[in-house]
Design goal:
The structure is a single chain. Helices cover 38% and strands 24% of the residues. The chain is an alpha/beta fold. The longest helix is centred in the first third of the chain and has 27 residues, at 62-88. The structure holds 2-phosphoglycolic acid. Residues 101-103, 130-131, 148-150, 165, 196, 200-202, 266 line the site of 2-phosphoglycolic acid.
């Protein structure tokens, strides 16, 4: 059996995630020569190179990639063990790794805040990103739980419904269609439109609807942030489609348009990899999520 120490594996994992000895040293509060000597010893123990340097870039070798996956499993098991011990002692303790789509950031942090008040020894790693990146993170088994719409069908997942996530058509309140009702979707032809970036689930849903009705909008701008899109609409750059949950009542410059086909009906799910052994903390949060969400949003006990 390979005689590597846990410390060496931790250093290796940190180097691999940053692609840099210097950054790993900074994160672990150790010197760079210590990182180098730990990696030298680990390489000797494994008997094959773990990294290769191409130009200034550090890359993992095939063996390095295998070791990284092993480290992930080892540390995950140890974290789980720590949580079980804490749970037996009567507390919830440990790290919760969560990745959510951009639209879910409008309710997840609030629920997390309340959850952490109840469990002050839990710490959180929250990643907010688009649908495509969530899918990649799932394939790499990077997180405990995922919150997204339209869970991918080609990954084996357990998906639990959380709440509705209607996508609405948002315009500047001075837009000529503002206030009209039952507007035919064809009226959107040639409208200046602000589109989410490639890989966004919202973008995919919009393109599907427009494709189905053969609507051709004029994409003036692509933006990767819901907040930036709202600013662009307020600035008169065009209309866009956003999750209704991204809109606040005080956004006076914005309005939703009553166009047929809208809102696009979507739902948020909390998902985890099938076969994943959820940690004590992840199970507790999953239960908490279900207790504090309902069809149209978070429950009144934690709503603003
Ligand atoms: P997005 O997520 O950030 O990928 O657009 C929203 C969704 O998938 O509903």
């Amino acid at each position: 059996m390979i005689q590597a120490t846990l410390h060496q594996l931790r250093v290796f994992q940190t180097v691999a995630s940053h692609g840099s000895f210097t950054k790993a040293a900074e994160e672990l509060f150790i010197t760079q020569p210590t990182v180098s000597s730990q990696m030298k010893q680990l390489t000797q123990t494994v008997g094959m190179p773990l990294f290769e340097q191409i130009g200034k870039q550090l890359h993992l070798t095939d063996v390095g990639r295998e070791l990284l996956a092993t480290c992930q499993e080892v540390f995950e098991q140890l974290d789980r063990f720590e949580m079980i011990v804490a749970d037996i002692k009567g507390t919830k303790q440990g790290r919760l790794r969560l990745a959510v789509v951009t639209t879910a950031k409008y309710f997840v942090p609030r629920i997390l805040g309340y959850f952490c008040q109840e469990h002050p020894l839990v710490d959180i790693a929250l990643e907010v990103t688009n649908h495509q990146n969530i899918t990649r993170r799932m394939l790499e088994n990077q997180d405990d739980l995922y919150i997204l719409s339209q869970p991918p069908e080609d990954i084996l997942l357990c998906n639990e419904y959380l709440m509705d996530n209607p996508l609405v058509l948002v315009a500047n309140k001075n837009h000529p269609l503002a206030g009209k009702t039952n507007i035919p979707i064809k009226s959107l032809n040639n409208e200046a439109f602000i589109m989410r970036e490639q890989g966004s689930g919202t973008r995919q849903a919009v393109q599907q609807l427009f494709g189905k009705h053969k609507v051709a909008v004029k994409v003036r701008l692509e933006l990767g942030s819901n907040e930036a899109i709202k600013q662009a609409i307020a600035g008169g750059l065009g209309i866009s489609v956003l999750s209704e949950h991204t809109l606040y009542s005080e956004e006076l410059e914005l309005t939703t348009l009553d166009v047929k086909g809208f809102p696009i009906k979507r739902e948020w799910y909390v998902s985890y990899l099938e076969g994943k052994q959820l940690s004590v903390v992840a199970q507790a949060f999953l239960q908490y999520l279900h207790q504090h969400t309902q069809k149209n949003g978070v429950t009144s006990s934690i709503a603003s």
